[in-house]
Amino acid sequence: MLPWHLPLLQAEGWKWCRPNWTRFKGGDRLPAHVDRSYRPHATTMQDLRWKSEDCQVTGSNRHMYFRRPVFGGITAQQPAEVQQRAPVGAAQQQQQQLPDQHPYQQPQTEAAQEGHGSQLGNENGDQSCDPGDATTNAIGTQTDMRESEAQTLPWQPECILPSEPSAKQRHLSTKRHCQGPEVLQLQGLTFGGGLPAGLQEVDHIDKLRAKRAFESALPPLNCLELLPLRLKKIEGWETKEWEEREEEIMGLQEERLRLLDQAIACREQAQDERVLEKLEERKSLAMEKLHQRLAGLQKRRNAVLRHLTTSRKKAAQRGKPARTWVQKYADSGSNIYAPLQREGRFPHSRPKGQEIATEAFQPQDLKRLGDLEKSMAGALTFVASKARSKADRLAAKEKKRKALLERLESIYQRLETAKDTAGRGSDEAWPCPLLEADANKRSNKGGLKYA
């Protein structure tokens, strides 16, 4: 199909050409409804550290399995496979050996048992379950493998007193004047609050025993005749306890005072040690400075001594008189007995056949005198400079007077010039310059202008 504006273009001289269309096919197979800005969550090492590890029975989660079941009197039934594998008479023999109540389990009241039974019946479709039929029993355990950060009070098992104590327990209860084991009388002692026990705890236990023995020996309350005696004994015992308590408080105060004195002494000792360290440090610094000054003085002293020694040697050499012939002949080590050689010859010996003239040259006639003048340099015999006469020189006072006269002459000349130029000044410095237009106005002095 041709475009609608083709006749218009042909009328204007344009030529229509079919356009070149290019179609591209996308190679992306991602559906259109998927968001292209989606980025999956990148797992980092921090996320891996934050993730909890798998539940390990023998690992860090072992303490989670040391608990009692929800219903202490009811246990899980043994699987059917285990019952099939068990011998025929094993279950009956085990049921005969197991008592109605396990000695390690806490006895439950009738109301609690009824509640548990009704709840179990509702869950299992009103089916009854006999606790004696259980073949396994779960008990609480405690492990020592615990982390220090999670460490709490040590685990204490529940204590259950038997309904009928043994003969030994009855004898001990009568001896210690208590019902049941004596350990139950020490429930106030906890870990960190008296346990592990020390000397004070042992004294406290002895006092509790004595108090129980005293209470058991008191007269009964139903006897009115012995009631005053009972009150008197109780008051005496309380007075004794208060006195012991006061002694204990005094002992604690004395112990605190002793510890306080010890702490003060340690603090003073530490302070004295710090003061001594500071003194030693300052002393060492002062001694170091003193040694440096002494070393500088010693160095300067050595230098001065060297200069003095050198000066004395030079002075001794300058002032040393020459030796006479008698001293030379008296000295066996002088050059007279053993002359020194220099470059293969004796410098003090006279050469053979050459006489050295020691007399001065004295010309006998005029010719020799002329030869002597010719042999000498001209500067020695001819003086080219001429001394200046003293008449040309001026004294200092005369120079000052001459300069003053020249200055006065210049001032006088300027004053004369100023009179000739309307009496105001001339040149560039006296007393101030005038304009060229105003220099010719001698009559009108008020109309002058400054430059």
From TrEMBL:
It is found in: Cytoplasm, Cytoskeleton, Cilium axoneme. Keywords: Cell projection, Cytoplasm, Cytoskeleton. Residues 417-427 have a biased composition (Basic and acidic residues). Coiled coil: none annotated. One of its GO terms (cellular component) is axoneme. Pfam families: CFAP91. InterPro entries: CFAP91, CFAP91_dom. It comes from the Eukaryota. Residues 83-108 have a biased composition (Low complexity). Residues 141-306 form the CFAP91 domain. Residues 79-139, 417-451 are annotated as: Disordered. Belongs to the CFAP91 family. This is Cilia- and flagella-associated protein 91. It comes from Ostreobium quekettii.
